[in-house]
């Protein structure tokens, strides 16, 4: 089971707390609460993994917890990037507190009741909190052209690998999820999968997750060797028309681990959409693939995004005096959609 998302955000929080940055901004209590929840969640996942609990409910919850961890890291990274005036602190406080509460929905009471729940967890059939991958936020500026271009390349172009390269905070994951939910993409490919290749990638977990999404993971697959599992995925992708979206590849080393299961056959119908913060990573994956680079928002686009988030859609005008304050706030965001949205 991949714990790297939670480990990564715990490391980020640990650095901030060590530097005492959070105490300067008045959000130390909220960050420490989040740290406690993530630490508990990490223990929870390790216990689930140790007990070999592996059904649809477990997989869904693990995916949701991992996504919350990525959300938490985005918030913390945005916080570290910004020089936030005092009036913005409550936005961070609210966002961090909300993430903590979402994580708390997975807590099962006291330690005794949690242990009892772990024993029967594989038999639970709880209603899932939300689908995965999440349907992206509607408050997205300027992505329409990017989506149109990427969909066109995926559907019509001969590029086997299509890559989105962008700095953290510019919306690569949001764009990838938009592609995942695009009706033209859904109609074109027979099956789709959304996976992560994290900093501490476990290749078998990546392969199993993709096979599960493609609806071809069998109980017997848990007993076969890595080479056989990789070959099963390789052969299926070679013979079928799938879109494999792999988000947030940290390094060339991380990519090299699961790569043996991904065919490089120019005339096959399956395609790969990769995202990374590092251009050398996507170039390493396929030097002849299509590279799409996102740019920072300009002042007009930054202001448009801020208005969509800060004011109700029914409001046609910005209250007197608020425009100046808002533009001062977005000036500190350096055109990063993630910083503006939080």
UniProtKB/TrEMBL annotation:
Q: Which residues form the NB-ARC domain?
A: 146-314
What terms describe the molecular function in GO for this protein? Answer: ADP binding
The stretch of residues making up the signal peptide is none
Q: Which residues form the Disease resistance N-terminal domain?
A: 5-93
Show the InterPro entries listed in the entry: Apaf_helical, NB-ARC, P-loop_NTPase, RX-like_CC, Rx_N
Q: Choose any GO biological process term that the UniProt entry carries and state it.
A: defense response
Question: Is Nucleotide-binding found in the keyword set?
Answer: yes
Q: Which domain of life is it from?
A: Eukaryota
Q: Which UniProt keywords apply?
A: Nucleotide-binding, Plant defense, Repeat
Alphabetical list of PANTHER family matching this protein? NB-ARC DOMAIN-CONTAINING PROTEIN, TRANSLOCASE OF INNER MITOCHONDRIAL MEMBRANE 13 HOMOLOG
Provide the protein name.
Answer: CC-NBS-LRR class disease resistance protein
